[in-house]
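Researcher: Re-running this chain for the archive, since the previous output was lost when a drive failed. Same request as before.
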Amino acid sequence: MIWELDFALLLFMIVCAIAAITVKDLLHATIILAAYSLIMTVLWAEMNAVDVAFTEATVGAGITTVLFIAAIARTKRSSSD
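Model: Regenerated C-alpha cells:
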C-alpha cells in the first residue's frame, strides 16, 4: 500500500465527516456524504476487498444518495429562521 495515498484519503475523509455535520443545507450534506462513501470505496479496493468496495459504491454512494436527494426534493427547503 502507498502510505501517502492512505494518509491523503484519511485526511479527506476527516474533512468530509466534519463538513457533513457542520453544513446547514441538507443537499450539500448529502453530496458530502456521497464523497465520503466514494473515498471509502477507494480504501476498500486498495485493501483488496473488492466485494466490499463494490457494495459500498452501489449502496453507499449510489442508492443511499439517490434516496436522500429524493427525500430532500419532496420536503420544503425554506426555513422560518
